[in-house]
Amino acid sequence: MRLEWAGGGYLLDVGGADVDLYTYERLAAAGLAAVRAGELAEAARLLEEARTMSTGPLGEGLEGPMLERERLYRQERFLADMEVRAELELELGRHRNAVPCLQYAVHKYPLRERFLWLLMLALHRSDRATRR
């Protein structure tokens, strides 16, 4: 690894080291490509593997306007990928598998309505719908 000055900032050259952000990007892109190819089970597996690579905010402990924009982009990308993953679980008939993940997502991101809709659908398909 090498840190060097590059124009208006620093550049960290990681060489051939594995970087979780790059691994996430590869897995998520492969998962979305699998969706387009109709390989739903493989897509769900790849997106789940990608999810495990996202362990916290990008550049935690660092500040700066460019980093904040990148954090926002990465979070939105992650949430969109996780919505696709939940949709895949439902498409594959694995409704009960989708419920815990969606309950967590609804709790953590209560304003993200798509997660709530998917949770209600997963609960209904799992025979856990609320009855009056």
Automatic annotation (TrEMBL):
Keywords: Transcription, Transcription regulation, Two-component regulatory system
Domain Bacterial transcriptional activator: 19-131
Domain of life of the source: Bacteria
UniProt keyword annotation of tRNA-binding present: no
InterPro entries noted in UniProt: AfsR-DnrI-RedD_regulator, BTAD, TPR-like_helical_dom_sf
Keyword Transcription: yes
PANTHER family tied to this protein: TRANSCRIPTIONAL REGULATOR REDD (PTHR35807:SF1), TRANSCRIPTIONAL REGULATOR REDD-RELATED (PTHR35807)
Name of the featured protein: BTAD domain-containing putative transcriptional regulator
Taxonomic lineage: Bacteria, Bacillati, Actinomycetota, Actinomycetes, Kitasatosporales
